[in-house]
Amino acid sequence: MRYAFLFLFGFILMSGCTVAEESTEPESTEDKVIQVAEHQQIQVLPFQDGAGSATLVFDAGMADIIVTADGLNPDERYTIAVEGAVVFGPEENVQVRVGAIKDETLFVPNAEGELYVSMANPTRVLLQRSDMSVVIATEQGQEVMVTDRFQVNKREE
């Protein structure tokens, strides 16, 4: 009798887990929206795979977007973009502290696969967009790192 009860309990537990897995719905894009203020605020947006981040620094009407990445292929060239807003480059608009820039908008990581790039933009460029994400993609367009989607809203003061 005890074994029958344990068997039945185990069966119920396993079928409950299966039903829970089948009924789980994916998160909507709305759940991943990050709202940030315009003035003197820092917002860190980790890449979904955890191998770096995009940091947005807002001050005096400017948004400095700092991208740090780890684990990239040193032999590959990458684009960096705030999808839905701006592409990093050309060379005179970016600061490359680790890695290098090639052909105006292509970035090459150092020998360890690390990249540190920043670019300042007027905050209004980001305010005019919604549903953005920071994306690092190969030269061929394959996304290798992406942040959760976010939106920039102006803080009411």
CATH class: Mainly Beta
Strand-and-helix sequence, N→C?
A: HEEEEEEEEEEHEEE
Low-confidence segments, given as residue ranges, are 1-32
Q: Would you tell me the structural class of the helices and strands? A: alpha+beta
Q: In brief, what are we looking at here?
A:
This protein is of the alpha+beta class and 157 residues long. 17% of the residues lie in helices and 40% in strands.
Show the helix and strand layout.
Elements: H1 2-23, E1 35-36, E2 41-46, E3 52-59, E4 62-69, E5 78-83, E6 86-87, E7 94-98, E8 100-102, E9 106-108, E10 115-122, H2 123-127, E11 133-138, E12 143-146, E13 151-152
Parallel strand pairs: 1-13
Antiparallel strand pairs: 2-3, 3-4, 4-10, 5-6, 5-11, 7-10, 8-9, 11-12
Keywords:
157 residues; alpha+beta; Immunoglobulin-like; 4-stranded antiparallel sheet; 2 helices; disordered N terminus
Fold and architecture overview:
- It is built from 2 helices and 13 strands; from the N terminus they run αββββββββββαβββ.
- It has a single domain, classed as Immunoglobulin-like (Sandwich), CATH 2.60.40.
- A hairpin with a 5-residue loop joins strand 2 and strand 3 (52-59).
- Mean pLDDT is 80; it is low at 1-32.
- The N and C termini lie far apart (69 Å).
- The protein has helices at residues 2-23, 123-127; strands at residues 35-36, 41-46, 52-59, 62-69, 78-83, 86-87, 94-98, 100-102, 106-108, 115-122, 133-138, 143-146, 151-152.
- It is an alpha+beta fold.
- The radius of gyration is 21 Å and the shape is globular.
- The longest helix is centred in the N-terminal third of the chain and has 22 residues, at 2-23.
- A 5-stranded antiparallel β-sheet has the order 2-3-4-10-7. A 4-stranded antiparallel β-sheet has the order 6-5-11-12, with no helix packed on it. Strands 1-13 form a two-stranded parallel ribbon.
